[in-house]
Predict the structure.
Amino acid sequence: MAKRPKKVPAFFFQTASGAEPVREWLKDLDDKDRRVIGEDIATVEYGWPVGMPICRPLGDGLWEVRSSLPSRREARIIFSIIEEQMVLLHGFIKKTQKMPKAELDLALKRLKDIKE
């Protein structure tokens, strides 16, 4: 049986110096948490468009992957779809009910950097 192709393959945002902040953030998490986030990203890659509870639009071309981790924390990956690719812009552990403005602003800045 042939493997189903990804609808929107995921790529890490890269800074001008070549750093990949989301990849580096993921490496700092424990294996179980990282696995859950990876599975949620794969759900989006293969099933795009995906709605709640996995994925939610944030506006301005941004979306979030919502992951409930085994460590009893909530993780978010902010991404954008650019030329049929899922670009992972920012990842963080959520500590409040509302999306923190600083996290959203950082993702928007990275999106702007890609488009320039």
In short: The first strand starts at residue 10 and ends at 12. Helices lie at 21-27, 31-47, 101-115.
